Amino acid sequence: MKVLLLENIHPTAAEAFRRAGLEVDARPGSLSGAELVDALEGVSLLGIRSNTTVTAEVLDAGKDLLAVGCFCIGTNQVDLASAAQRGIAVFNAPFSNTRSVVELVLGEIIALARRLTEKTQRMHEGIWDKSAKGSHEIRRRTLGIVGYGNIGTQLSNVAEAVGLRVIFFDTADRLAHGNATRVGSLEELLAEADVVSLHVDGRPGNAGLFGAEQFAAMKPRSIFINASRGMVVDYDALRECILSGHVAGAAIDVFPVEPKAQGDAFESPLRGLDNVILTPHVGGSTAEAQEEIGHFVSTKLLGFVGGGSTALSVNLPEVMPPNPPGAYRMGYLHSSEPGVLAGLNKLLADSGANVIGQALSTRGEQGYVVTDTDKPLAEHVLTELNRAPQTLWLRFWEPQV
């Protein structure tokens, strides 16, 4: 079994796959189009980060592909519906780099409030600019968090600890942490916040969420931060607001179009502006976070190919079966229709197989059942299941020694 890892995924992942006896091809940059299609020949597991796009055409080309691991938070770079239709599991790391992103955002809030970007630049130019003009403490300022998920909630907790007042807006019903206050609309948050920090996901509906209208609605001389998705923000509009002085500073970690590999040229309308921090999508790029992500996602991929577990899969029904000793295991992904499980169990009973464990879950139009039996299944059982119109795939595992 072959694994292809792209975009400098932490060596922890490659080590885990090699220990499991898999062949690993690890590459530093991303691939796209024909390059990616060619590289997928014979590949069973694909590991990517945020800069590799896995389309339906790519999935069609990956004839041997069993699963995709997104070694990051987001999965919008993968066509999840197409992957599900083909029975290809997709996993990500929804929690592993949360703290790293939060610490970056908090550091940026302080740096922008103190206008440290300008101070350090002038010092490098040999200019001693000792002045408190435009420099503020963050204590008692209001932080407005747009998107109160895993990162938004942890930012809320840490921000309160350093004296920020926190308000948040989310389209989902989220429980407020600590003394944070939910507001009823994005407009209400923008009118009240001294710092606006975006933490929304990459779903298509969020494209263009923040543009000229939203920047105009922000408090004069407030700060803007985006460490979520590049396509969410109109950066030309942000440039105009910074030049006019309406926005006092900004920190941007994500961009609509990002270079493919280390050292490639970077272009943005925000380059060269005072009190603007630009970072190359490094919110989760700490040694600690990348190591944890490498461990977490590789564990999920190995659990899937080694025992059929789909726990925390983002596109297939989630099943985390136990591992009874001496069991013969069958994973059965199928169209979710009435009577499939009953028909399966009748087949097993008629063949004389004793079921010693079974776990079933459905998701959308698919069902996934993992069945453990005390002996290998009869050939006619497998033939009949493979012929069934609802069958997507069958996979088998021998008893663990």
TrEMBL record:
<dbReference type="Pfam" id="PF00389">
    <property type="entry name" value="2-Hacid_dh"/>
</dbReference>
<dbReference type="GO" id="GO:0047545">
    <property type="term" value="F:(S)-2-hydroxyglutarate dehydrogenase activity"/>
</dbReference>
<dbReference type="GO" id="GO:0006564">
    <property type="term" value="P:L-serine biosynthetic process"/>
</dbReference>
<comment type="similarity">
    <text>Belongs to the D-isomer specific 2-hydroxyacid dehydrogenase family.</text>
</comment>
<keyword id="KW-0520">NAD</keyword>
<dbReference type="GO" id="GO:0051287">
    <property type="term" value="F:NAD binding"/>
</dbReference>
<dbReference type="InterPro" id="IPR029752">
    <property type="entry name" value="D-isomer_DH_CS1"/>
</dbReference>
<dbReference type="InterPro" id="IPR050857">
    <property type="entry name" value="D-2-hydroxyacid_DH"/>
</dbReference>
<keyword id="KW-0028">Amino-acid biosynthesis</keyword>
<dbReference type="InterPro" id="IPR002912">
    <property type="entry name" value="ACT_dom"/>
</dbReference>
<dbReference type="InterPro" id="IPR006139">
    <property type="entry name" value="D-isomer_2_OHA_DH_cat_dom"/>
</dbReference>
<comment type="function">
    <text>Catalyzes the reversible oxidation of 3-phospho-D-glycerate to 3-phosphonooxypyruvate, the first step of the phosphorylated L-serine biosynthesis pathway. Also catalyzes the reversible oxidation of 2-hydroxyglutarate to 2-oxoglutarate.</text>
</comment>
<keyword id="KW-0718">Serine biosynthesis</keyword>
<dbReference type="InterPro" id="IPR006140">
    <property type="entry name" value="D-isomer_DH_NAD-bd"/>
</dbReference>
<protein>
    <recommendedName>
        <fullName>D-3-phosphoglycerate dehydrogenase</fullName>
        <ecNumber>1.1.1.399</ecNumber>
        <ecNumber>1.1.1.95</ecNumber>
    </recommendedName>
</protein>
<dbReference type="Pfam" id="PF02826">
    <property type="entry name" value="2-Hacid_dh_C"/>
</dbReference>
<dbReference type="GO" id="GO:0004617">
    <property type="term" value="F:phosphoglycerate dehydrogenase activity"/>
</dbReference>
<feature type="domain" description="ACT">
    <location>
        <begin position="329"/>
        <end position="401"/>
    </location>
</feature>
<dbReference type="InterPro" id="IPR036291">
    <property type="entry name" value="NAD(P)-bd_dom_sf"/>
</dbReference>
<dbReference type="InterPro" id="IPR045865">
    <property type="entry name" value="ACT-like_dom_sf"/>
</dbReference>
<comment type="pathway">
    <text>Amino-acid biosynthesis; L-serine biosynthesis; L-serine from 3-phospho-D-glycerate: step 1/3.</text>
</comment>
<keyword id="KW-0560">Oxidoreductase</keyword>
